[in-house]
Amino acid sequence: MTSSKFPTPLGQGGPPSATPGGIRLGLRANLTQFTLLVVVNALVGGMLGQERTVLPLLADDVFHLSAYTAALTYILAFGTTKAITNFFAGTWSDRYGRKPVLIAGWLIALPVPAMLAWGPSWAWIIAANVLLGMNQGLTWSTTVIMKIDLVGPERRGLAMGFNEAAGYLAVAATAMATGAIAEHAGLRPEPFLLSAAYLVLALALSTVFVRETRDHARAEAALHPVQTATEMTTAQIARRTSLTDKALSAASQAGLVNNLNDALAWGIFPLLFAAHGLSIAQIGVLAALYPAVWGAGQMLTGWWSDHIGRKHLITAGMLLQAAAIALVAAGTTFSVWATAQILLGIGTALVYPTLLAVIGDVAHPAWRARAVGVYRLWRDGGFAVGALVAGALADAYSLTTAIWAVAALTAASGLVVAVRMYETHPRPTPAGN
């Protein structure tokens, strides 16, 4: 019989409320810091949302970029930089602490609003997106890691649901706000001034009120038997997350395709809508609808994955995304596209927090931050892949051809999850078994 003095292994049963060092794990025990980090991540999302409606139109109307591949270079720059920064964010947060990495992410972003608002050439927009990618990689990765640190293993899905909901509801709200501002004041500079206020508030909160959480991860690691895996190098962790572990690798490829879809929605959908005569305000509504449903839905789907498991939600979400993208390709009216955006948001909500919960389930606390970094390297690499694939197909064929191709790729990704991933969140063991 197992003594109640010792906790259950990682991912099995509920964690104790306090560790041997006196650090308390759990959502309720850390509610103030958790809530603060939710607010900070909403501001991270707002920084991304400033571009969703305005920048694709800016490329066409202000900088007169006729080739789709050229117009999507800002997404390529953003995605590549963010993906690489994600990887280092995990390593740096283990080495230096979570809070310094978070603050560094906000400092890097300080020039971004001015560069977007007044940059005299497209090169300035690309440079701003390099800085924005670094900002998003450092700040979003760190808020994810810090929330996982605080809540312990039993409520990871719920924690990731709140984290991603805050970020993408802010993306949606800011996309709609900047669309409305652009409709009345023009594409520049007014829509980008909102993010300057986000930056000041986020930097103040992160510097003054956010507390370091690395000791929570160390305390959780101390609860579990010493494993050989805890001594893995970063290269071994990268290989395991990318290739050898079936759940981690399936999550990594699904994350890449999911953000490839987001690049499509960010860069191609507004151009398609504009080509069919929609106004900037209508495009802003459509650009906001998808991340709004995605964001709000994650508060349910993260919790749901804690109760029914991860794999089937991810599979269903990828297949629903494929159907929604196909509906965008087939549609020609605002109402059809609005329906498609809602379905795409639901599908993404099923997938997004659940994939992060998979990483938290499988990775040991001693190397979890680095595994999150590797996963987010793959996931946000999808922005770069999406910009290249969608831009090249749109230039060679048409916007709708690019959208149909991504729909097929998304369906294939869902089937990979169905075949390869194992369930990572075990059901509670009945009493007496």
Automatic annotation (TrEMBL):
Topology with respect to the bilayer: Multi-pass membrane protein
Protein localization: Cell membrane
GO molecular function (one): transmembrane transporter activity
Source domain of life: Bacteria
CDD domains named among the record's database cross-references: MFS_MdtG_SLC18_like
Keywords annotated in UniProt: Cell membrane, Membrane, Transmembrane, Transmembrane helix, Transport
Keyword Cell cycle attached: no
Any one Pfam family match given in the protein's UniProt record, by short name: MFS_1
Transmembrane segments: 68-89, 101-118, 124-145, 166-186, 192-210, 313-334, 340-360, 403-422
Residue ranges of domain Major facilitator superfamily (MFS) profile in the record: 30-425
Example of a GO cellular component annotation carried by this entry: plasma membrane
Protein name: MFS transporter
Organism: Streptomyces regalis
